[in-house]
């Protein structure tokens, strides 16, 4: 028996198939979820993938956040269901107030697509336990609304509670506060980041490394050993 | 029918790179004397029925939960007089 991990497809999602593939490569079973689903098909965890749900109209993630599937997702995430938000998925999680802060347009106004060096700051969340704290990884980054911002009090809380999960290294690609690339909620079951681990799971493509795979093996181990 | 206008602006302390880009383009276009530009959003809501206190309260909730992200944005709600069509 393995873990069943849901991947939600919204109108405008782009990386649902890559995310399903990454889950399969890690040894878990991907389960396709649709934005109109009113239940989560009893999955053990959910990934909100990248893309441009609803064309990023209003604000990135603002409309997807009110999709039918988000209702059970928000409720169950608050009760401990592991949820990972990648890029647009991260934006949706902040709009749903499952993660603090929000994303603004990159400070230089350009779309970025590059391999990005990150430091894993917190290796104790549901999605990062197969990393070691301080580990440096390379995974792709591709977005235009990637500048993480939060008020000073929120930033202080995140820093003091170790909830900055990932930080940009060498260069801050978008003006994010405190070089923040990803954050976790208080319980560590909800994690969001702008870079794309699902694009770095095979040597052939992406960064040519498999630095993103531990996201998916972390959650699998946690669920199977639970 | 009445119109309610919701204006959404980035909070003053939030960097507005789009507004800055517009401002930087102004001298090139021959517009001088403008020291800052902030870009925002304006929503025009056509309301069925009277715009009473209850309707405005509902629109305020809508603005707070959906039209604006209060982590980074402020908003204002106001009723706009719609001129009667002249016969």
From TrEMBL, chain A:
One of its GO terms (biological process) is 'de novo' IMP biosynthetic process. Its EC number is 6.3.5.3, 3.5.1.2. It holds the Pfam family GATase_5. It comes from the Bacteria. One of its GO terms (cellular component) is cytoplasm. Part of the phosphoribosylformylglycinamidine synthase complex involved in the purines biosynthetic pathway. Catalyzes the ATP-dependent conversion of formylglycinamide ribonucleotide (FGAR) and glutamine to yield formylglycinamidine ribonucleotide (FGAM) and glutamate. The FGAM synthase complex is composed of three subunits. PurQ produces an ammonia molecule by converting glutamine to glutamate. PurL transfers the ammonia molecule to FGAR to form FGAM in an ATP-dependent manner. Part of the FGAM synthase complex composed of 1 PurL, 1 PurQ and 2 PurS subunits. This is Phosphoribosylformylglycinamidine synthase subunit PurQ. It comes from Streptomyces swartbergensis. GO terms for molecular function: ATP binding; glutaminase activity; phosphoribosylformylglycinamidine synthase activity.
TrEMBL record, chain B:
Its EC number is 6.3.5.3. It comes from the Bacteria. Keywords: ATP-binding, Cytoplasm, Ligase, Nucleotide-binding, Purine biosynthesis. The keyword Metal-binding does not apply. Signal peptide: none annotated. It holds the Pfam family PurS. Coiled coil: none annotated. Pathway: Purine metabolism; IMP biosynthesis via de novo pathway; 5-amino-1-(5-phospho-D-ribosyl)imidazole from N(2)-formyl-N(1)-(5-phospho-D-ribosyl)glycinamide: step 1/2. One of its GO terms (biological process) is 'de novo' IMP biosynthetic process. GO terms for molecular function: ATP binding; phosphoribosylformylglycinamidine synthase activity. It is found in: Cytoplasm. It catalyses: N(2)-formyl-N(1)-(5-phospho-beta-D-ribosyl)glycinamide + L-glutamine + ATP + H2O = 2-formamido-N(1)-(5-O-phospho-beta-D-ribosyl)acetamidine + L-glutamate + ADP + phosphate + H(+). The keyword Nucleotide-binding applies. It is an enzyme of class 6 (ligase). GO terms for cellular component: cytoplasm. Gene3D superfamilies: Phosphoribosylformylglycinamidine synthase subunit PurS. PANTHER family: PHOSPHORIBOSYLFORMYLGLYCINAMIDINE SYNTHASE SUBUNIT PURS (PTHR34696:SF1). Part of the phosphoribosylformylglycinamidine synthase complex involved in the purines biosynthetic pathway. Catalyzes the ATP-dependent conversion of formylglycinamide ribonucleotide (FGAR) and glutamine to yield formylglycinamidine ribonucleotide (FGAM) and glutamate. The FGAM synthase complex is composed of three subunits. PurQ produces an ammonia molecule by converting glutamine to glutamate. PurL transfers the ammonia molecule to FGAR to form FGAM in an ATP-dependent manner. Belongs to the PurS family. Part of the FGAM synthase complex composed of 1 PurL, 1 PurQ and 2 PurS subunits. This is Phosphoribosylformylglycinamidine synthase subunit PurS. The gene is purS.
């Amino acid at each position: 028996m393995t873990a069943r991990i849901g991947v939600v497809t919204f109108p405008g999602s782009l990386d649902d198939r890559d995310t399903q593939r990454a889950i399969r490569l890690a040894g878990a079973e991907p389960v396709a979820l649709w934005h109109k689903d009113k239940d989560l098909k009893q999955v053990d965890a959910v990934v909100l993938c990248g893309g441009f749900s609803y064309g990023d109209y209003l604000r990135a993630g603002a409309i997807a956040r009110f999709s039918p599937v988000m209702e059970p997702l928000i409720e169950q995430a608050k009760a401990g269901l592991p949820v990972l938000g990648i890029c647009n998925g991260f934006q949706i999680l902040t709009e749903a107030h499952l993660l603090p802060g929000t994303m603004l347009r990159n400070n230089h106004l350009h779309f970025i697509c590059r391999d990005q060096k990150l430091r894993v700051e917190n290796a104790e969340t549901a999605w990062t336990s197969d990393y070691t704290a301080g580990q440096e990884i390379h995974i792709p980054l591709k977005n235009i609304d990637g500048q993480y911002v939060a008020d000073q009090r929120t930033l202080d809380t995140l820093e003091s509670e170790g909830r900055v999960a990932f930080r940009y290294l060498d260069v801050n690609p978008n003006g994010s506060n405190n070089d923040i690339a990803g954050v976790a909620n208080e319980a560590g079951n909800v994690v969001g980041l702008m870079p794309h681990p699902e694009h770095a799971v095979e040597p052939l493509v992406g960064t040519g490394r498999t630095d993103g795979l531990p996201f998916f093996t972390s959650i699998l181990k946690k669920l199977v050993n639970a | 029918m009445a119109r309610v206008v919701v204006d959404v602006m980035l909070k003053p302390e939030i960097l507005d790179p789009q507004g800055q880009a517009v401002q930087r383009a102004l001298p090139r276009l021959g517009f001088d004397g403008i020291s800052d530009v902030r870009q925002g959003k304006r929503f025009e809501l056509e309301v069925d029925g009277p715009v009473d206190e209850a309707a405005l309260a509902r629109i305020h909730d809508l603005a707070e939960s959906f039209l604006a992200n209060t982590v980074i944005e402020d908003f204002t709600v106001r009723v706009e007089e719609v001129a009667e069509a002249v016969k």
